């Protein structure tokens, strides 16, 4: 099945089952504004024959700036227990079986790198996209994996200054990702949204500037949600997710900051990426750091959910409460 469009009177969502089941576009119909990112290079639509990208540059040839799924690896390619896991994992590049049923799109994949099957159900209602995922593992021994989402926002959403709000208590910069345009002291941690700057003073992560390129981890969620609001109140997005499955979120800024190809200083993306593991450098590095991982036991059946609300805001977004009554969409 080629690209699939899911629609309601308020939202249009485009999915590419043949390339990771990635969500490639989300458009808010009442305003006509797009909220997912795009990239300034031509994307190869066909999956990699190996289904495993050797490194980030190879993975980027298939990346459109939208919303891939990361499983069973997130970040750098690595070999664990004799199995090679490509950059950002098999799920992000592989083709998924797709069928439409009951107004939803159902994607299914039996993985080659792990004895596991995942079923993803995507549905659009009003201004809300809901993704429900079920994972079954039938390996004969326990396995440690990473499971996460990679929604990257851009397009019309980032066409004006934005404000990021979330329920995280803590934020920590990734120490091993320190490009020249990273404004944060590598490895610095603190209370959201303020972190020490490289040059002294403090950096306010809630009000991103350009050029910025950095990765940080959001933790300490009492209730997991995060939002990006255009400060002219033209459009906003709010993510809510299953905090038991995804206890942290990666926060990624690429704001016209990386001069190297293929970015070429022309890419504007902000990723808010719920994940099992606060390590964006791959399963191997996460194991080395003894970072929390998802441990799959033989016969395990697990589920997860994540919801995206797209709406025209009325001032700062302080959580899911009130979104339904203000915007005509009931949060799930």
Describe the structure.
The chain contains 3 helices and 26 strands. A hairpin with a 5-residue loop joins strand 9 (104-110) and strand 10 (116-125). The protein is mainly beta.
Secondary structure layout plus pairing:
Elements: E1 4-7, E2 11-16, E3 22-28, E4 33-34, H1 56-60, E5 69-70, E6 78-80, E7 83-85, E8 97-101, E9 104-110, E10 116-125, E11 128-137, E12 143-145, E13 148-149, E14 152-153, E15 162-166, E16 170-173, E17 189-191, E18 194-196, E19 202-204, E20 212-219, E21 225-230, E22 236-241, E23 248-255, E24 268-275, H2 283-289, E25 294-296, E26 301-311, H3 323-327
Antiparallel strand pairs: 1-2, 2-3, 3-4, 5-13, 6-7, 8-9, 9-10, 10-11, 11-26, 12-25, 14-24, 15-21, 16-17, 16-20, 18-19, 20-23, 21-22, 22-26, 23-24
> Widest sheet: strand order?
8-9-10-11-26-22-21-15
What can be said about the biggest beta sheet?
Answer: 8 strands, antiparallel
Give a count of the beta strands, DSSP E runs of length 2 or more: 26
Return the string of H and E elements.
EEEEHEEEEEEEEEEEEEEEEEEEEHEEH
Residues in β-strands, percent:
35-45%
Structural class: mainly beta
The percentage helix is: under 10%
Query: Whole-Å distance between the termini?
Result: 28 Å
Unreliably modeled segments: 324-332
Enumerate how many helices there are, as a single number. Answer: 3
CA-based shape: globular
Radius of gyration: 19 Å
Oligomer type: single chain
Average predicted confidence as pLDDT: 95
């Amino acid at each position: 099945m080629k690209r699939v469009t899911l629609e309601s009177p308020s939202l249009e969502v485009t999915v590419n089952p043949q390339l990771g089941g990635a969500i490639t576009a989300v458009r808010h119909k009442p305003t006509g504004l797009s909220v997912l990112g795009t990239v300034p290079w031509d994307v190869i639509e066909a999956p990699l024959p190996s289904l495993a990208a050797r490194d980030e540059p190879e993975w980027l040839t298939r990346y459109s700036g939208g919303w891939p799924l990361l499983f069973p690896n997130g970040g750098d390619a690595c070999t664990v227990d004799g199995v090679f896991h490509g950059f950002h994992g098999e799920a992000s590049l592989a083709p998924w079986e797709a069928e439409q049923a009951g107004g939803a799109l159902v994607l299914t994949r039996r993985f080659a790198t792990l004895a596991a099957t995942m079923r993803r159900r995507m549905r659009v209602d009003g201004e809300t996209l809901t993704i429900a995922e079920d994972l079954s593992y039938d390996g004969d021994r326990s396995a440690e994996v990473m499971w996460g989402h990679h929604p990257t926002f851009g397009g019309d959403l980032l066409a004006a200054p934005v404000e990021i709000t979330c329920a995280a208590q803590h934020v920590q910069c990734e120490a091993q990702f320190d490009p020249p345009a990273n404004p944060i002291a590598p490895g610095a941690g603190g209370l959201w949204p303020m972190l020490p700057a490289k040059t002294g003073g403090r950096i306010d992560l809630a009000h991103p500037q350009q050029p910025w390129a950095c990765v940080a981890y959001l933790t300490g969620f009492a209730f997991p949600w995060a939002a990006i609001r255009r400060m002219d109140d033209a459009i906003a997005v709010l993510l809510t997710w299953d905090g038991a499955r995804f206890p942290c979120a990666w926060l990624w800024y690429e704001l016209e900051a990386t001069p190297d190809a293929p970015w070429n200083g022309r890419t504007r993306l902000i990723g808010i990426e719920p994940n099992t593991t606060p390590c964006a450098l791959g399963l191997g590095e996460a194991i080395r750091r003894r970072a929390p991982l998802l441990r799959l036991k033989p016969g395990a059946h697990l589920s997860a959910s994540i919801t995206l609300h797209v709406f025209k805001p009325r001032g700062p977004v302080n959580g899911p409460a009130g979104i339904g009554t203000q915007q005509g969409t009931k949060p799930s």
